[in-house]
Amino acid sequence: MIEFRLDHRSGVPYYRQIIDQIRHGIATGEWKPGDQLPTVRALAVQLKVNLNTVSKAYKELEIQKVLEAQQGTGTFIGTIKVEIDEKERKNKLQAICKDFLNVADSYGFKVEEMIDELSNTKHTE
Amino acid sequence: MIEFRLDHRSGVPYYRQIIDQIRHGIATGEWKPGDQLPTVRALAVQLKVNLNTVSKAYKELEIQKVLEAQQGTGTFIGTIKVEIDEKERKNKLQAICKDFLNVADSYGFKVEEMIDELSNTKHTE
Amino acid sequence: MIEFRLDHRSGVPYYRQIIDQIRHGIATGEWKPGDQLPTVRALAVQLKVNLNTVSKAYKELEIQKVLEAQQGTGTFIGTIKVEIDEKERKNKLQAICKDFLNVADSYGFKVEEMIDELSNTKHTE
Amino acid sequence: MIEFRLDHRSGVPYYRQIIDQIRHGIATGEWKPGDQLPTVRALAVQLKVNLNTVSKAYKELEIQKVLEAQQGTGTFIGTIKVEIDEKERKNKLQAICKDFLNVADSYGFKVEEMIDELSNTKHTE
DNA sequence: GTGGTCTAGACCACT
DNA sequence: GTGGTCTAGACCACA
Fold first, then answer.
1. Nucleotides in chain E with any atom closer than 7 Å to protein CB
2. pTM of the prediction?
């Protein structure tokens, strides 16, 4: 089971952080279609946030068809393999990169610097 | 004179976009120390946003010593060359890269993909 | 014997799906008054749901006099031909149609389109 | 401006009813891309529900790209013309019809009866 | 003023 | 026990 963590300083809404961690877990294969997620209540207790906050995160992912909730049973990773067709994936990547470039650019960083930095950076939560 | 533009879709607050564009103009040398900025009122009209929004952006840059406001005259690019010491600049770059990696990671993108994409992307507003 | 099936995706509660399938079986004549239904336990195993879920469905149909439970023997299709008086049947039909129209309407479908579609659709579980 | 109404008896969640009415307003052309919706607070007062309930409805539609919210400004009908390509629309229609047939079928209603009823029914809230 | 997030606590429907 | 909905009230960020 994946360990959830919240960053209380980042300013990123808790529910967004939860969403990101679930997406990440799926993207890396730590969670597979059909796997059961922690219950809303359990995760709320674990993260010391309100039940509604976790619920909101799960709900958003459900709307996006990433999760499936069964009342009275639990919440599961969607079995409808979210067909991220290659085109959409590419678009997402481009959008993220564009945002990144805009921000970095406004500080006067050059693309080469950024690529250098990225190459040396390890993702740490 | 630099042409300001706002992206209404990005979700980035207007005042932040204005700040970024001013920083960018300075970073690229389009604006030099002592240059006068558009008045708050003029920019607000041009961008079709509230006076307070532009004001907030200018204020924040003043605090950062990037701009200097002169009562009754206008707002100017700071003449005290903002000594961005290298360490701080490095930190900023790292922070931006880390954020970027976290986001991309949550979608399952690999560093290599991102670098590829960045290499091929031109910054366009 | 009728083969029960649950749709895990529809969002329709399991107990409701069971009720509907039994009603359907009776309506189409596949089950006749006096026929014995699978035991609660057997059906629960077959459908891989909780005992209580099947139990709830049978209970509701008992209340509606559609089924009759005999202590220690089993559950049977009601022998008292449930006299659905015409008026009530008509009301039910209208209620269902109204719901349907509301939903379809909110998506901008026209009545004619719906009727067209219905004419061409075969009911498949 | 469209008049919102809640049905307190239907059992359909308030936030869902709000969503449906907005979708309906868009589908029928009463609302056009760029139009501003009532503020969260205003609608909450009008419908006598909690602010969060309205907020939830707006949020869901925002996730679905039907609405666009600008903090501090208001909520608007999405300008990215939601390209309901014909195929998707057809699928939705089929899904709705299938549900309808399943329910009606379980009560022993025939397709002809239903079409008759539909032809005679006017949608009334 | 606008929307966004969160808490605490309640009640309901389903398994 | 599970998830779903809702209220009341609070505080924040933005225009």
1. 1-10, 13-15
2. 0.84
